[in-house]
Task: inverse folding
């Protein structure tokens, strides 16, 4: 399957900076989310992770692990396209224009009707962060298996932050899934 130059199964040596979610992140002094009553704005990936953590808590599937996404060329600015019903997301680097299916999306691409995301300010250039909620074992410890996937965007123009896509995702290993972002 090929979609705008993307081939399912194509490998991409993407730089990832994975971090487990820690509730103490919510208390950092250097995080300055701004809320205008309707929307929330932030300055960087850390602010986006906080907004995504709040969203995950509101859904009942709190985010356990995050990854801030960078292209192999080093850029962290992307166009973002998704279809939540199909569980498909695609990112296109704003610098080198490389496109990549995110997570295990390539396996569901044939069913997808992708929507291009555009911020309320009109920009389509975002920083991306992905997060996952993992299954719990009987003792409430975290299992390796993923239950839910989240993709958040921070507008590079105005700083708007939010979770732009999320879906149920039955993947065997959270580290492997986050590397596929």
Result:
């Amino acid at each position: 399957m090929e979609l705008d130059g993307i081939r399912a199964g194509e490998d991409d040596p993407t730089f990832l900076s994975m971090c487990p979610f820690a509730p103490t992140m919510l208390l950092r002094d250097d995080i300055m989310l701004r809320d205008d009553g309707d929307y929330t704005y932030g300055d960087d990936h850390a602010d986006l992770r906080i907004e995504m953590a709040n969203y995950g808590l509101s859904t009942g599937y709190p985010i356990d692990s995050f990854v801030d996404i960078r292209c192999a060329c080093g850029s962290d600015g992307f166009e973002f396209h998704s279809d939540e019903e199909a569980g498909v997301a695609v990112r296109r680097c704003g610098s080198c224009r490389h496109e990549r299916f995110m997570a295990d999306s390539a396996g569901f691409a044939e069913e997808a009707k992708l929507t291009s995301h555009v911020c309320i300010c009109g920009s389509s250039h975002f920083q991306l962060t992905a997060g996952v909620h993992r299954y719990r074992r009987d003792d409430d410890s975290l299992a390796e298996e993923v239950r839910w996937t989240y993709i958040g965007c921070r507008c590079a123009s105005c700083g708007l932050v939010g979770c732009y896509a999320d879906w149920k995702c039955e993947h065997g290993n959270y580290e492997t899934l986050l590397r596929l972002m």
User: Anything to note?
Assistant: Residues 45-59 form the longest helix (15 residues). Residues 1-29 have pLDDT under 50 and may be disordered.
